[in-house]
Every structure is written in structure tokens, then in C-alpha cells.
Design goal:
Layout: H1 19-23, E1 31-34, E2 40-42, H2 50-58, E3 62-65, E4 72-75, E5 80-83
Antiparallel strand pairs: 1-2, 1-3, 3-4, 4-5
């Protein structure tokens, strides 16, 4: 991830939803958490790919999985994953 430090895990919202999918009455496959702002969004397997769109709009490049039992980060900028 280009030698940049990975942000600590941001606290998730209390309700596990894609905030953007709810606004458009859509659904998601898996949830991701932005490590810069804590926003919870849907994954690239979801129809609208809100986590990726969030990165493209804000530059917030690191997300973590919000799925139970998964402990990994993904950097859109470097296209690399890291377990924690």
C-alpha cells in the first residue's frame, strides 16, 4: 500500500446498512466501512458499488469489511488488501 500507514479501524454505525442503498430503496451484498469517515457502504459485488463510488468522490481510499468474522482492509488507490 505504497508505504502509507493504514488508518485504524473506524467505528461502524450501529445499524449494519448501506446508507446509500437505503436512500434509493436498493439492496447490497456485503458491507464495507470507510476508514477515513466511518461511513458504511456496499461492496463491489453489490449493484451500485457505493464504497467504490465513495472513494472516487472523496479520495477516502481505505475500507474494511463490516462482515462478521472478517478482518481485512482494502486500499482502492493501491489495489491491495491487508489482514489485521
Amino acid at each position: 500500500m505504497s508505504g502509507r500507514p493504514i488508518a485504524p479501524v473506524a467505528p461502524a454505525t450501529k445499524i449494519f446498512i448501506c446508507e446509500e442503498c437505503i436512500l434509493i430503496n436498493s439492496h447490497w451484498v456485503h458491507l464495507r466501512i470507510c476508514q477515513s469517515c466511518g461511513k458504511m457502504l456496499c461492496c463491489d459485488f453489490s449493484l451500485h458499488q457505493h464504497a467504490r463510488r465513495h472513494y472516487e468522490e472523496t479520495g477516502h481510499s481505505v475500507i474494511s469489511s463490516a462482515e462478521l468474522g472478517e478482518q481485512w482492509l482494502w486500499c482502492f488507490l493501491d489495489e491491495q488488501a491487508k489482514n489485521y
